[in-house]
Design a protein that fits this description.
3-stranded antiparallel beta sheet
Length: 242
């Protein structure tokens, strides 16, 4: 498979026949994400992510999905240090699931667990956690990761439904952030945010429906998180001036 999903170079289906003697050694190295300035965010992550990250909506049409801004410039993740360690408290699930991912069949009915064979921690030297035991059965590690990816996919579907609801209510509007970097005025665009006035103008029934599914809380968590954008821009400006 060609490079896909931003951070995956060569994701292939996991099988006992191919990967029986292979292991995965993970750690606190996020170098694989150093060149991306945003990643998708699940609705279930809003409450924690909003404490330090800026949540926006990226994409077009039916592909619009919540994301977190990780850098103010393209191809730059301000949350990854030079040694690959993560700068900050919360790591989005999109990155925590790496190097595993589901691939979906053309009809969307079947999901297959895959692994990025280009991941530097993927090895047949016995380092880290094995994927299969000596008899070719799944190890507890692989079962745990499979369960995590399944839950991720379930939450992904729920988040799609939330975003669809926002679209139906016409709550999303184009936005951009302006900031100074290295003495020059710059702008970050190409994303959407919830229009606060349109949200307040919803009918009582619409607000009640959103509240009943906890989606109203998600709306305000997103709006509150926008306040994190200015401190991020300020930190980058100070870093570039140093």
């Amino acid at each position: 498979m060609a490079k896909q999903l931003m951070i995956y170079e060569r994701a292939v289906p996991i099988s006992a026949q191919t990967h029986r003697d292979w292991s995965v050694k993970t750690g606190n190295n996020f170098s694989f994400a150093k060149d991306i300035n945003s990643v998708p965010l699940l609705a279930a992550e809003f409450a924690t992510a909003a404490l330090e990250h800026t949540i926006i909506f990226a994409g077009e049409g039916d592909a619009v999905f919540p994301s977190v801004i990780l850098g103010m410039q393209g191809n730059n993740n301000d949350h990854v240090n030079a040694d690959g360690t993560w700068k900050g408290r919360y790591v989005p699930a999109f990155l925590r699931r790496y190097p595993f991912v589901f691939s979906k069949s053309d009809d969307g009915e079947t999901f297959t667990l895959c692994i990025d064979e280009e991941f530097e921690g993927f090895n047949n030297d016995g380092k880290g956690e094995r994927l299969f035991d000596n008899e070719g059965g799944r190890t507890q590690y692989l079962e745990t990761m499979l369960k995590f990816i399944q839950e991720y996919q379930n939450q992904f579907t729920r988040t799609q439904m939330f975003t669809k609801k926002l679209h139906e209510l016409d709550l999303l509007a184009p936005a951009q952030a302006e900031f100074k970097l290295a003495g020059k005025q710059s702008a970050l665009a190409g994303f959407q945010t919830i229009n606060r006035e349109k949200l307040k103008a919803l009918t009582g029934k619409q607000l009640k429906d959103l509240a009943a599914t906890d989606e109203l809380e998600l709306c305000y968590l997103h709006l509150q998180s926008l306040n994190n954008l200015t401190p991020m821009a300020r930190r980058l400006a100070e870093k570039s001036a140093a």
